């Protein structure tokens, strides 16, 4: 089988239904399966799938284990040569999936590939980045980001200098849509489950680079992202009161601590 598509659900039954609908509408010309992993949503996802898409495999987690652990449940059951992780708020366009599969097949040194994401109005949705420095989370979450220095740092981080007109290597890709070479996981490993949400995609791409695999942003494959950045919603002074913000901060601290340690080990070896 060419591809396993994994969709992680947490109380987004309607989005899952729409996501699967668009996959079937532009039925990929590769052999594929769809796995839905449910993070203990209690939203009736099983009944919906049984009624609408009985051939879709459902994996139920007994509790909400987060993005990394939830997707890993699907990866362990994947039968495809490649694995496509998709958030439910993604819709595909014709040929997008086939183009990514073909690129991986033609470039064995590529471990992860991501599509060009656009918003519903077809404007660019930033989904490829340079690795963050320590100041980036501060600039993106506080008024310091409005200063000239902060604006320049964020612009470099989100790659505003890249016009998205050509396929190229990037540091890391947004986890909303990632296609991974499954054979590489024996060396790289799966998503790090110490991250409940946020930074697991940054970490994974960095580990692929560390293992000698390239990470590529594919402009020829386009998907639509109906995204809302929950961790940045509302006044910044109130942000620590929101669970999503606290989760984001904790993942940020775990990421920088982990990679500071790994880089220190590398420098000593």
Describe this structure in words.
This protein has 269 residues and is α/β, with parallel strands linked by helices. The protein has one domain (3-230): Spore Coat Polysaccharide Biosynthesis Protein SpsA, Chain A, CATH 3.90.550.10. It is built from nine helices and eleven strands. The chain has helices at 13-25, 45-52, 66-77, 96-106, 136-141, 148-157, 185-188, 200-210, 243-268; strands at 3-9, 32-38, 57-60, 82-86, 90-92, 110-118, 128-129, 168-169, 172-173, 177-181, 214-225. The strands form two sheets. Strands 1, 2, 3, 4, 5, 6, 8, 10 and 11 form a nine-stranded mixed β-sheet that branches.
Features:
269 residues, alpha/beta, Spore Coat Polysaccharide Biosynthesis Protein SpsA, Chain A, 9-stranded mixed β-sheet, 9 helices, globular
